[in-house]
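Suppose you are handed a protein chain with no further information: no name, no annotation, nothing but its sequence. What can you learn? This example shows the usual starting point.
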Amino acid sequence: MVSTEAIESVSHSMSVSEGQVLDIAVESFSSEEVEGAALVEVRALDAQGKRVPLPEWPTYSRRVGEYMYLTPGDQNSPSIDEFSVTVPKGVTLIKLQGHRWKQAVETRVLEGLIVNVRGASNSRTSLPSGAPLRYSARDLDLKQELHCGTDRVNIFINHLAQEVDSSGPVQISFFNENDQLITPIGDSKQNPKLGPIFVLQGVAETRTTTQVEVEVPREAAWLRLKGQDWGSKTALISGAVKVEQHSNQDDSTLREFVRSIPSEVPLIIIDTTAPPLGHETLALRPNNLTAAYARLGAYVIFIPFGSLQGMPMVHDDHVLQIPREGVDEMLSIVLADRGADNSTFICSSFPSLQSVTVATMLKTQGWKVVYEARDDMEEFNRVGYSKWYSPLLERRMLGIADYVMSVSTALDEKLVSMKPQLEAHRVIPNAVNRHVIDNGESLRTESAAVRRADSTTVGYVGHLTSSWFDWPLVVQAAQRMPDVRFEIVGHGMPAGLELPENVIALGPKTHEELPEIVQNWKVGLIPFKDIPLTRSVDPNKIYEYFAWGLRCVTAPMGKVHEYPATWTYHGVDQFVKALREAVDSPVLNAERDEVERFVQGASWDDRARECLDFIDLTVPSQEA
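A reasonable first move is to predict its three-dimensional structure. Written in structure tokens, the prediction is:
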């Protein structure tokens, strides 16, 4: 069920700049269908916090200033209200606040306010209920980067004519890498003033999908789609505008890859929020499992979060990665050239509308569907990340999936609470790359432990955002333990932090640089805030710490309390006590042996075997 909150608890603040347009949408319902029962206050503030009037705003009161009433709706059919704010000169902050205006009527909002910056690439395109957001075609201004080798694009726009039939044009432009306009090719319809166009033709009050295929000039680096104001004939666009990029070379490469896979060998499609394969320093669980599946003999089609970012399409003989724009073409090829036997689709922490659609289509053709939960995406969404996330879509994915894998017990329990009838679900933790284990062998020896015996240096490797990294805890601990040196490695450190002299920020480091740094550490830290987001995590870094022969002091999360050489804590007092014990107590051979056994069974190949066993996929023996 979609979460709701009382209108008076709803608020949203964001930094803005002059000329930006904020598109705001609200889904709500009230205990009674009474006009004027609730409203959203819109407050524009300058750098000194002084209120700035919004020019020509339609509704104003002395009590709240500028506002918009919410349309009354009921729980079975929530109302949808949409309005826009153009940021005037001098305004640096927009604050939105909900108000219960008629005290006898309770109004509740579905998942808070949706605020999109017009033209931003990460804008939400659907409401909490799943209904698409709508906006006038005159406001369409989309600039899409084109991949190298793209020779045609397919454009899909869902739209709705208003009270009269629509026939508004959309201008098509191409630009080179220097942002210079390029003459298009092909036989696009031409307008004397606008140049190449296509038309959003539709019947009054009827939803229509316009699809056009456009040839791309060879030197084009960008495509721009710009809607036009066509008066009463201007259509309303519904949801995201979709631009699929194609090249004959990509299509043939994908088709050859699929046809080369023997029917008895598994094909796994992984749809994920992870970056493309090839960025070793950015490799996440899906990247590592993809490589492990391939080493075990399976074939993988890998779909990263966005484009390939310059990484090759062919990763190796068993792995092909495609940009997200190529998913529909990929589907048509695998459904035409590959049977359902030994074919599996894995949605890895990306229950988007596209992923749910793909999973549904493949399942109807007999494919296995797996949902792999790596993080609590709802909590990431709550702190400003993963803005695409929708609980409704996650529930739909859970309903489609034949198997559900989670990285932690807490995450598994949450998914079961969302879908109590889940049967095939298992916790399969994270891991570490075999080369990290092998390269860290000298750091796990008895002589390394002796060398570190008197060390009072501890450290952390990872992201440093204050959304989950507990900076106040580290600062307080460092102040109370002046003899301990805290070395912090990573990116994303908040600006303006004042750190004690014994806390040293080393900045980002490569995997090659880390062994030399950590050889002097005694303890690896995971000082995360104790919040729902972190409790569901199974931290990758703890496996790296063990591979480097380190003890670990960590916030409670996942199953870390069951791991060897690990101390957990609640609050700064326990953190200091645990850290003091981990730094001062000797490392005995029995502890080293336990860590060695643990880390030798914690490679990504081990996890890949466990995943394949769970989803009942067998890779034929590669022995001669």
